[in-house]
Amino acid sequence: MNARKVIFAGTCILSLLSSVFVQSVHAFFSIELEEIGSYRTGIFDGSAAEIVDYDEKTQRLFVINASDQTIDVLDASDPSNPTLITQIDITPYGNNANSVAIRRGIVAAAVQNHVKTDPGSVVFFDTDGNFINQVIVGALPDMLTFSPNGVWLLIANEGEPNDDYSIDPEGSVSIIRVPFSKLFIAKLTDTDVVTLDFKKYNDQPIDPQIRIFGPNATVAQDLEPEYIAVSQNSRYAWVTLQENNALAKIDIWRKKVLKLIPLGTKDHLVYPLDPSDKNGVKIEPWPVKGMYQPDGIASYRYHGKTFLVTANEGDSRDYDTFSEEARVEGLPLDFTVFPNQRDLKDEKKLGRLQVTRMNGDTDGDFDFDELYAFGARSFSIWTGDGQQVYDSGDDFEQYIAKNRFTGFNADNVENNKFDTRSDNKGPEPEGVAIGRILNRYFAFIGLERVGGIMVYDITNPYDVKFVQYVNNRTFNGDPASDTTGDLGPEGLHVIPRHKSPNGYPLLVVGNEVSGSTTIYNIKISFE
C-alpha cells in the first residue's frame, strides 16, 4: 500500500471515529427552555401577537398584530430585551395580515381582503418595512411559508364562508416561484401565482371519513386549508384541512393536489379525557371519539423519510345561520348503543361535552350511534401518507392535572376559572414548531387555553420522549392588566444556534391573548 492510500485510509478511520464520538456525545444531552425576554404590547385579548418569524441578517422579529392591523418589527439583537422598531401598516393592502414569513431579506405577508370571502393577497416588503409588490391569491389567505430551498412560497387560502353562510368561497393553495432578489420580486404579477383548487373532487368519490358538511357546499367549497408543512427536499407539501379532519398532499414541482388523506379519530375509551367543566378533575374513559382536526403542522426526516407533526386543536363550524355544535345532553342517543344514556347525560359526566351533530347517526334514524368531539387534546406524528405512528394520548391533561393543578383546563382570558375548558377541547394544542438541536429533533407544542409549551424529543418517531412543560402564566394576576404572564400561545418559531443573536438556539412564541412575544433560550446540558 502506497503512502497516499495509507494517509487516505487513516483519514477515513479518523473521520469515522470522530463521527461515532460526536454521535455518542450528542446522544447524552438534554434541553430546557428558559424564558429570557418578552415584548409586551399591553393589548389584552386583541390578537396583538400571533404569528412570528425571524430575519437573521437584521436580527429582527416580525410579528402579526391583528389589533393594530400591522406587522410589528422587533429588534431581537438582545433577546433578553426585544424592542419595537417600527410597525408595517397593512391597511393599504387589505384588512389584516394573518401570517408572515421571511427569506433572503424578503418579508411575505398573507393579507385577507376587506371582504374576507373575496380573493386575498400576498404582500412583499423588505426588512425595513418598505413595500415591494402585491399579488392576488385565494380567499382568506391564512398561512404562508417558504420552502426550505427558498424557491417556493406556499399559501393556504382557507376560504371560510361569511357569517350567514350565503357566500362560501373555495378553499385553495397558492404557489409562487420566488425570485432571489428584490428587483425580480418587484416584477412578479398575478400571472406568476398558481392557485390550486379542489374542484376535481366535486365529481369523484372521496373517503367518507373526510368531513364534507357545509350547507349546500361542494367539496371544493367545503375544504378549508389551514396550515402547511413542506418536505426537506422542497418537493411535497402537506396542508391541514382542520374542519374536515384531513390533510391534502401537494406536489409542488408539478403544482398538483395528489391526494386527500383522512385522519380518523381517537378512541377516548382507550385514551381518557375530562369531558365536564362541572366536576373538577376527572380524566376517565368515555364512549367518545375525538376528531384530530389539527391546526399547526410541521415536518422532519427520520431515516430518509418525511414525518409530519400535528397539533390536534379541533375546530367547529359555528355561524349565524349554521352551527354543528351540540352538547351530549341535548342529543337523542340510540338506546341500544347507549343503554345508560340518562347517566351519561349527567352534566358531571358526559352531558356538557361539546360534540358535532353532523356525524354520528350511522344508520340514518335520527338518533346518534357515535359521539364525535372536536380535537384530540394531543399532538401526533404521521408518515407522509397519513399513517399515525405516535400520539401523545392523554399526556397533556394528565401532566397538568398532576403538576399545574390550579390551571387545569383553564381558559385564557380569565384567571381563577379552573376547569372551564374541559367540556370543549381541553388544553387545546394549537401551534407546533420543530427544532433540530445537535443531532436530535424536538417538538414544541403550544397549549392555547391553559398556556405554556410542551416539549418532546421526537428524533425517533417510534420512540418519543417527554422533555418538559413550561408555563410562565400565574393564576393570581389580572389578565386585562397584563399581570399574569403569557396567555394564548399562537405562533412558535425556532431560531437555530447558528442564526441566533446570542449563540443559543431560541424559541420565540407569539401569545395572542396577552399580546406578548416571548423568547426562550433552549439550554443544552450534557448528561
List keywords for this structure.
single chain; 527 residues; mainly beta; Methylamine Dehydrogenase, Chain H; 2 domains; 4-stranded antiparallel β-sheet; 5 helices; globular
What would you note in describing this structure?
This protein has about 525 residues and is mainly β. It folds into two domains: about 1-90 and about 400-525, no CATH class; about 90-260, YVTN repeat-like/Quinoprotein amine dehydrogenase (Methylamine Dehydrogenase, Chain H, 7 Propeller), CATH 2.130.10.10. The protein has helices at about 5-25, 180-185, 220, 340-345, 395-405, and strands at about 30-40, 50-55, 60-65, 70-75, 85-90, 95-105, 105-110, 120-125, 130-140, 140-145, 150-155, 170-175, 195, 225-230, 235-240, 245-250, 255-260, 265, 290, 295-300, 305-310, 325, 355, 370-375, 380-385, 390, 430-435, 440-445, 455, 465-470, 490-495, 505-510, 515-525. β29 (about 455) and β30 (about 465-470) form a beta hairpin.
What's a quick, concise take on this entry?
With 527 residues, the chain is mainly beta. Helix content is 9%, strand content 39%.
Radius of gyration: 24 Å
Number of domains: 2
- Helix tally? 5
As an assembly, this protein is: single chain
Estimate the global geometry from the Cα principal axes. globular
How big a fraction of the residues is strand? 35-45%
- How many beta-strand elements? 33
- The separation of the N and C termini measures 43 Å
Q: What's the helical proportion of residues?
A: under 10%
Largest sheet: 4 strands, antiparallel
The residue-averaged pLDDT reads: 94
Structural class: mainly beta
User: In what order do the strands lie side by side in the largest sheet?
Assistant: 1-33-32-31
| Residue runs with pLDDT of under 50 for 5 or more positions | 3-26
